[in-house]
Structures are given as C-alpha cells and as structure tokens.
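so my prof wants the structure for this chain in the tokens format not the other one, which i didnt know existed until like an hour ago. anyway here's the sequence
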Amino acid sequence: MNRAPVANAGLAEEDVASGSVVTLDGSFSSDPDGDRLDYTWVDFSDPQVGLSDTAAQKPVFTAPTLAIGDQDTELYFILKVDDGAASDQFQKLIRVNAPPNTLPVADAGRDQLEVYPATTVTLNGSGSSDANGHALTYSWTAPNGIVLDTSDPLHPTFRTPVVAAGAADVVLTFSLTVNDGFDDSAPDTVAIVVKPARLPKVTAIDPPSGVTNGGTMVTITGTDLGTANAVAIGGLPATDVSVINDTTVTAKTPKNVAGSAGVVVTTAGGTSDADTRFIYIKGTQAIVFTSTPPVGESVGASYTPTATGGDSISPVTFGASGPCSLSGGTVDFIAEGDCVVTADQAGDDNYEAAPQVQQVFRVFPPNRKPIADAGPIGST
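here's what i got, hopefully its the right format
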C-alpha cells in the first residue's frame, strides 16, 4: 500500500531583505516509500513575484523593492508534492522587510570662541548629513534670552548680548537636531563665547557739519559701537540715538555754538575719545518785504513797511534815505525824489546777519491847488 509523501519547504515563515534574490526550497519534502516526487509551487501573492520555475524543487524570485518607511510586504506560497499516487501541501510565508533607516547626523558647526557684544553671529548647520540621501529639516535650540532668526535654517543668526567691560566671558550653547523625515538625529552642540565689551572708537561723522540750532541727523561710524547707549557732541547729549550695527550709530545733533565740537559715543565698553569733530556753522537768514511800496505818492504822504525775517532773536529793522525819513516805523515823504527803504536783521549765536533788502520808489512834488482867474472886471 502506498504511503503519502510529506511536503516541507523549511520554515513556515521567513524574513528576507527588500530587493534580494530568494530561493524557495522544497528539498525538505520526503516520501516514506522512497518514491520520486513531483513539485508544484503556487504563488498566492498580490501581485505575484514571478517564480523562475513553478515545477522546480528550488525555484527563485526577486523580492519586491521597498523604500525606507514602507510597510513590510507578505508573500504567500503553497508547495505541493506528489509521488504519483498521493500528494501533500505546505504553506509558506515570505515577509519582505523594508530597509532600515540610518539615523541622520547633526553638525552644528565649529565653536566660535571670540565674539563681542551686540554683533550678529551666524550659526552653520550645513555639515549635517543623511546616509540615505533624504532631505533634512533643522531644529535649533537657543539659550534663554537669545532670539534666534531661523528664516535660513541652515544658517540661523542672532545678536550677542551685552557683556560689560571687565565682566567674565559669557558662553552660549546652541543645540541642533536634524530629521530625515523618519527619525531625529542625536543632538549636536556649538559654543559661542561672548567677550566683554571693548572701548568704542569713532572714526567719522557724516555730514561733518550742521547748523548751530541742532537737529542735523548724522551717521557716526567706527568700531565696537553696537552697545552704544549715549552720544554727546560738544559735551551736549544728542537725541534720537539709534544703533544700526556694531560699526554704525545715528543721532540728531544738539544745539550748540558755532565751531568745532568733539563727538563721543558711550557703550558698555566705555567712552570713546573726542578726536572726531563736528563743525557747527551759523544758519543763514533772508528778509522778505510783505508790504508793497507805494506808487505815485507825493510829498506829505507816508508809508509803513513790513517784512518777515529769519529765526535769529534779532528783529527786522527798517531805515529810510533820500527824500524820506523814518519815525516810529513810518516812512514820511518830505521831498521829491527816489526814496530808499531798507530792511536789516542782525545775527546771533545761531544765525548770520541777513543780507539787506531794499525798496526804491519815486516821491512826486506836492499837488498845488488850482487858482481861479476870471479876468479883468468888465472884460468879455
């Protein structure tokens, strides 16, 4: 009597790598009577992988290629062995594993061991890498009190805090973690050492001159100006002081007398010398008559001139010459001829004297009353 064969394809479940060449092995099958066996493999996978020979004892196939992060794929096969009189089946599961992710590597850049207060520092995460070639995202962590601009995540920037002259160095530690879309890297840190503020130095002021009544907006340039908290020109405080960067400060000049004035900037590092000078110059003035000179006036008439002047503390004053005289602000016409009315304004500490302006007009002879003459008595 024939005894049935036993189908055996090894382990019922087996894990293989993505994209690998896999051999199904039916050689573990046996027949108790020693009969020759026929092999039949059936692929129940969806989709099927394509066996090299479904009647072979050891057919081969190529496992599907999976990407990192894909779900594992399960392939199902049935091996049937037949000795010509009886048969047996064996079910086998091949699990195709997606490739494992290699963790990305964060690189926060080199330590910067000598930076100064109120300067802009750029961090550098461009050395970070991913062995699988995935795109990276960057996550920076800054110390308390530091505002990090991450609009460029590879090269974020921040402004260093004020460290007063004579104080100890301040060490700022930043941490970078990168992610490849699957996993975070281990964090990497970078140290930024902020040195105490240095003595500021002023090298130029633009414009180099302005009016004595102040208000000239100036740009002061030099070195180590980033912590500026005061500007003085000629010993007087400037207004609207604004720090642009470590080398530039803007301010409005105070009122001062004409002449050369030293420019001094005070920072956390101290006070600059006054070698750079700002020249105060007197402002100019102009007089404009607001009254219209008379036309066709004759001896005996009068005229009251008016005018506006500049901003000095001195008033506009008038004078008269020729056939006219000035008294109490009124010009009297006393004779025939060309009358000249002048207007002047003196200067002061802030303004030059205004150029004199004139009005010139003609004074005519006085009108004579007509004399009636009826002729001799009795004439016709």
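also thought this was worth mentioning. Residues 288-363 form one domain.
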